[in-house]
Specification:
Blueprint lengths: L3 H8 L2 H4 L4 H4 L9 H8 L2 H9 L14 H8 L2 H10 L13 H7 L3 H17 L1 H51 L3 H15 L1
Pfam family, one: Ank_2
Keywords: ANK repeat, Repeat
Amino acid sequence: MSDRFHRAAKDGYLEVLKESTRRDCNQPDEDGLTPTLWAAYKGNLEALRLIVGRGGEPDKCDHYGNTALHCAAAQGHMSCVSFLVNFGANIWSLDNDLHTAKELAAMNNREDILRYLDTVSAKQTTTDPKQVKKLQDRALKDAEKRQKEFDKIQRKADKKREEENAKLQKERQKIEKVDERPQGKLVWITSCLGNKEK
């Protein structure tokens, strides 16, 4: 897998991003970050606009449940947050720790973003409470599903690490047995040879 578009999103190289396809814009790296998420995380608004315009999904999340809105809010990129909200990103999405983007903004002392998202959430709740409830329920269900998947991946990684450690321990024991010199036999042979010479 090439990380060409991920790097372009991080650094804001628009000419490279103009060559990307929908698939490229949504391709996760080893941490689950897509070019869409990287552009939001780094605050590259023009790159984010271009990527989303080419099919990058702002509500797609990394392995930890962070969406583009989570990334932009936590990092304090107000222009990206505003763009994502106006584009229709789900402000109710939850990360694996069940935090919304608004909560991440609060935890990271992003007061302007916190006020903005608070205003947007209040407006959405007042305008269409049923739709908000659906979005919140779906966000919780998705987060719980991701948590289970993440726990499964963690258990699998832990089991693999334990197996590798056991294998390494066996290898060490073999090496230690080979390195052990039979000290007692050597002394006995030397003493026997010494007695014959007398």
